[in-house]
Design goal:
By secondary structure, this protein is α/β, with parallel strands linked by helices. Helix content is 52%, strand content 10%. The termini are far apart.
């Protein structure tokens, strides 16, 4: 009987260390971690490895249900599959998951919790979308600032009129070819 942990973060920029530390503190001797993987995709590399590792009598500990499943259907199927394999599921933030998912009552409770997890994910998406729309309305655009300053764009245009190729201009400016092409093309479109 082994306690196994599973952690997941949706983007490469996020750090899963706090999740992994919480799972280890909860007794997980082995923790699988997926970076930059959506919970809506079942074939996450570390998730597959975790499922392969689990044996009857083991406990899978997670921080929250949305770490393993991004939809209600996925959550119910995953919990049911784990239960049929004799693997107990334990959530650090949802203690009611420590139930027998193979019984009708257990299945109903899991279904309710899966719906709530889906609601949380959908709410986050909706809030993000609204926030981005508001920022755009204020004239702000997300993402990193461009490396192509007004001076660099002017230099790139001048070099293009001197028949320099995009790769040559990119080497001179120390940026990528696609960055130069985008900046020069955007400038031409705006001047028409």
């Amino acid at each position: 009987m082994t306690i196994v942990g599973y952690a997941r973060v949706s983007t490469r920029e996020q750090n899963p260390e706090s999740q992994a530390a919480e799972l280890s503190a909860a007794g997980a001797g082995k923790v699988y971690v997926d970076h930059g993987e959506s919970s809506r995709i079942a074939n996450r590399p570390e998730w597959i490895a975790c499922l392969d590792y689990l044996r009857e009598g083991d406990t899978l500990v997670i921080r929250a249900l949305d770490r393993i499943a991004g939809t209600e259907r996925m959550a119910i199927e995953t919990i049911r599959e784990l239960g049929e394999r004799g693997v107990k599921l334990s959530s650090l933030t949802e203690p009611f998951l420590d139930i027998d998912a193979t019984t009708p009552m257990g299945e109903a409770i899991i279904g309710i919790m899966a719906v709530l997890a889906q609601l949380r994910v959908s709410t986050i998406r909706e809030n993000t979308r609204r926030g981005l729309e508001h920022a755009r309305a204020q004239g702000r655009i997300g993402g990193r600032p461009s490396v192509m300053t007004a001076e660099r764009i002017e230099t790139a245009r001048k070099l293009r009129t001197e028949n320099k190729s995009y790769p040559q201009i990119a080497a001179i400016l120390g940026v990528s070819v696609s960055t130069v092409r985008r900046a020069v093309t955007r400038g031409l479109e705006n001047s028409l």
